[in-house]
Design brief:
The chain is mainly α. The protein has a single domain, classed as Hypothetical protein af1432, CATH 1.10.3210.10. The protein is built from ten helices and no strands. It starts with a helix and ends with a helix. The structure holds 2'-deoxyguanosine-5'-diphosphate and fe (iii) ion (FE) (3 copies).
Length: 188
């Protein structure tokens, strides 16, 4: 599947602003791929579909997780913002026969990160955080870092996210800590 075909499939499922975010994530992810020697075709598809399930309602997302889908039931103990990645990956596999594990994992873990992320997973995770439309505090520093080193960028994005969630007294999904622990000890 090509970038334009993937984007055309995603578009009807998103609001205009979310679609524009998605296009910027694809562009950013392609740039990060070129810098880091990743497989551009995989990265493009994963980035195009990363927020595919963003506008499914909470009840539908919950039903998918509760079905025998192999999705972690522990997600249900955490904020519903964390559900659209794993459910999105499950649905695109069913609907578009996307079976590449690397693509599906990049969609699944784009919000939380996890331990031992692949190159494709790191790129989609970081592109989602730094795409030029993002405005959150500290994003400029993460952007600068990301163009120097993918691992440094991921480390800073995870650190910011954890600090942000803690400052709001929000729970933090364990995979986010596992990802942080990987990057904090990694050569950057
Ligand atoms: O779908 P997007 O808005 O493009 O971005 P996303 O899928 O990365 O969603 C990020 C939101 O999820 C962000 O507002 C913080 C929130 N969130 C809630 N709990 C956690 C979390 N993010 C991480 N990484 N870990 C959590 O435990
Ligand atoms: Fe998302
Ligand atoms: Fe994100
Ligand atoms: Fe996103």
């Amino acid at each position: 599947m090509e970038r334009s075909e993937a984007l055309a499939k995603v578009k009807p499922h998103l609001k205009q602003e979310r679609y524009e975010h998605t296009v910027r994530v694809v562009d950013t992810a392609v740039k990060l791929s070129e810098l880091n020697g990743a497989e551009k075709e995989k990265v493009e598809i994963a980035a195009a579909f990363h927020d595919y399930a963003k506008y499914r309602d909470k009840e539908e997302l919950e039903r998918w997780i509760l079905k025998e889908t192999g999705l972690s039931k522990d997600l249900l103990q955490y904020h519903h913002e964390l559900w659209h990645g794993p459910v999105g990956a499950y649905i695109v596999k069913l609907e578009y026969n996307i079976t590449d594990k690397e693509i599906l994992n990049a969609i699944t873990f784009h919000t939380t990160g996890r331990k031992n992320m692949s190159l494709t997973e790191k790129i989609v995770f970081l592109a989602d955080y730094i795409e030029p439309g993002r405005k959150f505090p500290g994003v400029e520093e993460v952007r600068d870092a990301a163009w120097k080193s993918l691992n440094l960028g991921c480390y800073m994005a995870l650190k910011n996210t954890i600090q942000f969630l803690m400052s709001k007294k929000q729970p933090i999904y364990p995979d986010t800590f596992h990802a942080y622990n990987d990057f904090v000890t990694m050569e950057k």
